[in-house]
Structures are given as structure tokens and as C-alpha cells.
Amino acid sequence: MKTTIAEVGKHVNESVTIGVWLHNKRSSGKIAFLQLRDGTGFIQGVIVKSVVGEELFEQAKHLNQESSLYVTGEVVKDDRSPLGYELQVSGFEIIQEAHDYPITPKEHGPEFLMDHRHLWLRSKKQHAIMKIRNEIIRATYEFFNDEGFVKIDPPILTGASAEGTTELFHTKYFDEDAYLSQSGQLYLEAAAMALGKVFSFGPTFRAEKSKTRRHLIEFWMIEPEMAFMDHDDSLVIQENYVQHLVQSVLKNCDMELDVLERDKEQLKKIKAPFPRITYDEAIEFLKKEGFEDIDWGDDFGAPHETAIAEAHDQPVFITHFPTEIKAFYMQPDPTNEKVALCADLIAPEGYGEIIGGSERIYDYELMKKRYEEHGLEGPAYEWYLQLREYGSVPHSGFGLGLERTVAWISGTEHIRETIPFPRLLNRLYP
Length: 430
Hints:
The chain is an alpha+beta fold and 430 residues long.
């Protein structure tokens, strides 16, 4: 009977056949232990010489790392195994024998591993990170579907920047200029006026020449937009969403968290509601912590976010940033027009901002004024202004960076390991 490693628990004391790769091996006298993987998981295969015969046993002893096989054996319970089972091998068939696999169990430098990213993905830790990433994606669709959101796919090729910045990848769209999207937000606002609550999940691109462990050139964003919802309503959705992601990973990726040696007790603390501090309070706190160079009107960098995060064991919202350092579309606070109704959500343990969101300007005259202040003109922006002419309503939205969230929940230090094939300042392959 053919099965997978993930399904062996259904076949205890039965003989099964699994297509696998040899991850590692060791032998001791008349017994060989094969560490096998099939994409769904890892299992130990035990080969006893007296069971399989001398010829097959010798073949097993000389198998090379990452050779592919069909392995047949009996599934038995094993409490010492992280999986809870092992395979008592009765036979195997070699599909392809690998030679000189470049990634060995020894230590390799990050550049070497990135050059071999297409192979590095096969390792236990990278496999665990990708499984956690997949669970976060699955839980995202679950959360927004359960909350009544409609999935919308905004265009990747756009005529202008959503943020009004110049960090864009330029291309030609026949005889016009076009850019790779850095956010689907503007289009999602249009969709929210049609469907109420919408979200997108897709790639975004930032031509930002940054080499920090928190930045990628190409990354994935989850961007909800909600009609008839104000800033406070949005914060509740955000914290419930993040709580759902963490709880889903704890429930469904326990083994992967163990592989990564993630402190699960830290994740178990993540329960909504999250603490909230204003930008003003954050500035005051940072000055008390010794950041004398930070002044009102400055944006926060990684050290500032880390200091704020370390004062909490939950994600923390920083709200009401100065309008001058935020995007043109953010609704000013009616009690203080110098600050916007916006928030960044800072993850614990030094992982930085994972969400940015705000209430959007819905008044036509105010948005028109913002257009003039930011020099936004032409057909690339006219349609967005028009949304404020026909049945405009208060609305809010946010964007969650998938890779930063995966890094935090999985406990991965560098964001380059949280996406299958990272695009970095100096890397366009593999």
C-alpha cells in the first residue's frame, strides 16, 4: 500500500511503500538507520541485515545522501521518534542514486546556502519554516473567510505608486510607463466600496536598497480593506487575526516548532487585546531609555521598535503617527490634525513591524488637498480620488507582511529563510 510519511499513523503494524529521499544515515554492525523524507515529513527507517539479506543491507550502507528510493516496510510505534513512528524496512528500490550532494551535515556559510537555495529547502529546518509559512497562509484564508471577507486580486502592473514613493521597479507597458506593485491597497479600497470587506494576498515589490535582516525586494502581503470601519474597529480585526495565526501554528505545527527549537511558551502568551501606545508615548519612552537622538516627527528604526517591543510580552500597537511621515491617504485625527488615525503593530522579541494600517481619508475635499500637497496627478490617480465622489464612507485597512510574520512566529532570525526563493539586493537567483 502506497502512503506518505504524514499518513503512517493510519497504518500501524501494516506494510506500506513510500517514495522518499535519503536525508542521512548511520549504521551499527548489522543494523542501518536511514533518515528518510518525502516532503510531508521525516521518518527513520530501520534495516536489519538478517531481515533484508546481505546484498540489500550492503546497498543500504552505501547509499548516498539525497538518493531517491521506494521503501517498503512495516509501520511501528516509537515513542522516541518526534513523529511517534518508525519504519521497519523489508525492502527498497533505488530510483536515482545521488553523488556528491553539496550540502552536507557540516556547517556551511549563508552565501553558500543561498547559492544552493534550491537544495537547502530540503533540510529539516527549512522544511519546518515552509510548513509554518503554509499554515499561516491557510489560517489567513480561514480567518478572513470566517469573518465574511471577499478575496480580491489587485493588479501587479500599475501606473503609479500606492505610497507616493519612488522606490518602484519601472517597466514599459507597451508605450506607457508601468511599475511593479508595492501595494494593492488603492485597488482594494475600490473593491471595498463594492463588496464591503475584502482582502488580497499577493506579491509586492520594493526597490529599496536595504540589506537588513528584515527586508526583501519581493515579498508577500495580506491586505484587508473594510467599508464602514473606523481606526479602532480595524485594530480589533488586526489583533484577532494575529492571535488566530499564532494559535493555528501552535495547534497544527507543533513538530515544526520543535525542530526550530522555538520557545512555544512565548507564543502561548499571544492573546488579544494587545497593548496600545501613542506615538507621543513612544517618543517619551524612548527618551527615557536613552535614545536622546529621537525627536517628535522622526520615524522609528529597528533599535527603537526593539526597545518598545522588549517592554511588552505581547505585540504592541503604536498609534497616531505624525501625518508628515505617513502616506497621503491616512485620515487625520479630528482632535489633532498633526497626527493620523494609524498604527504599526510591533512583534515581540525584536522582530519589528509586522502590520501597518490606518483609517483612510474619505472626504473628497481633503483628499483633493492631499493630492495637491503630494503632486499626485494624471489618470493613475484620478480614479482613486473619484472613489470619494460617489458614496464615500469611512473605511480602514492594513497590510501584514507574510515573511516578517513567519520569521517572528517560527523564531527565524533572518527573513531570507522565510520565503522559498528570496530576492535580495544582491541576489536574483536561484
